[in-house]
Amino acid sequence: MHLRFHLLNLFLIGISFTTVAQTEIHRDSATVPGIDSTENKIFKTVDTQAIFPGGEVAWKKFLERHLWAEVAVQNRAPVGIYTVWVQFIVDPKGNVSNIHALTRNGYGMEEEVIRIMKKSPQWTPASQNGRLVTAYRKQPVIFTVSK
Q1: Where are the domains of the chain?
Q2: Whole-angstrom Cα distance, residue 54 to residue 64?
């Protein structure tokens, strides 16, 4: 069996990120004195989403260097195409946190994507109304198992 992985380009999904200023989640109800109120929010949708530094080409190179692409084969995944979706938070400094899988394909794929996400450098943060904000980000990684 042979395994390859592919990347989906989230930027081609055609969703407008410009009309959703009201879709933020409050981390807590308390406002911290001296801190801008947007720092206490995690945005679900933003004007400009967080991206891997260097864009899609750099993301693909990062995966090629760090992802153990054979994990599904080693764990005896049947021939097929598997999309692993992870969700995480990128803060205004580009730090990645709260990484978790949204899929359950098994065969060690979700764990492998989470492992490499923990190794990723700081991302370029999301922005809303011209300001850097904390936002959720969903990222797919596609594994292909073939004969």
Answers
A1: 2-15+38-146
A2: 15
What length is written for the chain? 147
Query: Nearest-CA neighbor of 127 among 75, 92, 98?
Result: 92
pLDDT at 56: 93
- Alpha-helical segments (H) within the chain: 55-66, 71-74, 109-119
Which DSSP letter does residue 68 get? -
Q: What percent of the chain has pLDDT over 70?
A: 73
Nearest CA among 141, 120, 117, 139 for reference residue 49: 139
Residue owning tokens 């109800």: 29
Structure confidence by residue, pLDDT tens digits, 15-60: 222 222 223 343 433 443 333 455 678 999 999 999 999 999 999 9
Is 37 or 142 the better-scoring residue by pLDDT?
142
Cα–Cα distance, 40 to 42 (Å, whole number):
7
HSE-CB at 83 with a 13 A cutoff on CA atoms is: 9
